[in-house]
Design a protein that fits this description.
single chain; alpha+beta; 13 helices
């Protein structure tokens, strides 16, 4: 229990006041009470530090310059008017945007593209350490194969030259680059009766390069003509350039028909490789003392028979695949067959004639016989280095030329394919007749 104690207080004595004041002892409190406070009354503003700083700023002018003889403006007005001679400086000419000095805008330097040294940083290894240096009929040595692959990679990433005026996007394809000359003195090739141009483009979906062949100024009348492309897109063969799709467009400011095929970088036609005239080169021999270098013309050379039979077997295999599918190639021509690798060829432009000639009704059997005739004329062209070797007046001379430079099998193959059409003439009978050459080609391909 808590105890509460009442606080105690002492008694205070109460006395009556007296009239006589008793002296009191002054205390500290009384001393303070005696201090007096004097109030000073000031009439007018009081100068404070803030007011003094404000007055200093009002008097200071950072743009005023001290002068001894008076105002600076007055001195300038009293200056001589002829102090500055206006005639000592030439007048400024008017601005002329077409008259600028060429020194301000120098022309860009011209850089000549040098051939790449693919072994600059990775030199070709010794043959003792590389087991794949064996040079087969279709696969080059490892050093040449690496160079070919790097060159293809470089060509795939090229861009179009300035001023090409190509569309930026074309039905899902972009970065168009022309693969053949479209202007200048170069004669443009035709596909049938129409001019065509080949471009390389990148597919926007998978990023893979494709080859676009554009048929200029062609108006497609029936959408059903694309049914042939659906059939060709299902034909797959190692000696046929694959067909992907076809569409129409007006991106080139005309009615164009575009065919999309597989792209094979750094490929050339058989015409460009074997028949196209090569420009002469400057030749200098060590034994020609005191004689100036001269131009050496490149004469067409005879294609080796081993290469001729390689071409024959590959084309015959591709034709058999197409005929078995119920179609006709219709493009067995020296300008439509591509050399995509070492002795490796592929037939291009497949399916294009079927779309262009959709309105013309033709017998598929006759078209297949025409494929064999075109195949025979191609053999004459390659063996004789002449596109008119199988014509009427040159036919006999071409046979004599083939007999002198090749074996009898080459002559028999050319004569069989150029003979009259009939049931005795088919691609299956041709392969059976020359099965030994086919077997040899198969062995070379598997090595």
């Amino acid at each position: 229990m808590a105890l509460f104690v009442r606080p105690q207080s002492s008694a205070i004595k109460i006395v009556a006041p007296t009239t006589q004041d008793e002296p009191k002892t002054p205390t500290k409190k009384d001393v303070r009470g005696k201090q007096q406070c004097r109030n000073i009354v000031i009439h007018g503003p009081v100068a404070t530090p803030e007011m003094e700083y404000q007055a200093y700023q009002e008097q200071y002018n950072p743009y005023a310059y001290p002068t001894e003889e008076g105002d600076l403006t007055k001195q300038m007005a009293e200056m001589e008017t002829g102090f500055y001679d206006e005639n000592q400086y030439g007048a400024y000419p008017d601005y002329d945007p077409h008259g600028l000095d060429s020194g301000y805008y120098p022309s860009p330097p011209v850089y000549l593209r040098q051939p790449l040294d693919y072994h600059l940083y990775t030199p070709a290894p010794s043959g003792n350490f590389v087991p794949s240096t064996f040079d087969s009929h279709f696969v080059p040595p490892s050093s040449d194969l690496r160079t070919a692959l790097q060159k293809r990679s470089e060509i795939t990433r090229q861009i179009a030259p300035i001023g090409s005026n190509l569309p930026e996007e074309l039905q899902g394809y972009h970065t168009l680059v022309p693969l053949e000359a479209t202007t200048g003195a170069v004669e443009r090739r035709k596909l049938g009766n129409w001019y065509s141009t080949v471009y390389r483009a990148i597919n926007s979906i998978d990023g893979m390069p494709c080859a676009l062949r554009r048929i200029e100024n062609y108006r497609l009348m029936h959408q059903s003509a694309f049914s042939a492309i659906e059939i060709w897109s299902n034909i797959r063969h190692p000696n046929i350039v694959s067909v992907k799709e076809a569409f129409t467009t007006r991106s080139f400011n005309d009615n164009s028909l575009v065919f999309v095929h597989a792209y094979h970088a750094d490929s050339q036609t058989l015409f460009d490789v074997h028949l196209k005239p090569k420009p002469p080169t400057m030749q200098t021999h060590s034994y020609q003392h005191g004689r100036a270098p001269h131009l050496q013309a490149h004469l067409p050379t005879i294609i080796p028979e081993r290469t001729i039979w390689s071409y024959i077997v590959q084309i015959a295999s591709a034709i058999k695949k197409v005929h078995d599918a119920g179609q006709a190639v219709r493009n067995v021509d020296v300008t439509k067959i591509l050399l995509t690798g070492q002795n490796r060829i592929r037939i291009s432009c497949c399916g294009i004639i079927d779309v262009l000639m959709h309105d013309t009704l033709q017998d598929i059997g006759l078209l297949q016989q025409e494929d064999l005739s075109m195949f025979g004329r191609l053999i004459f062209t390659l063996c004789c280095n002449n596109t008119t070797a199988s014509s009427g007046q040159n036919y006999q001379k071409s046979l004599e030329f083939i007999s002198r430079n090749y074996t009898g099998d080459v002559k028999d193959a050319a004569m069989y394919l150029t003979s009259r059409a009939g049931p005795h003439k088919s691609i299956n009978l041709f392969l059976d007749k020359f099965h030994a050459r086919v077997n040899s080609e198969m062995e070379e391909a598997l090595m």
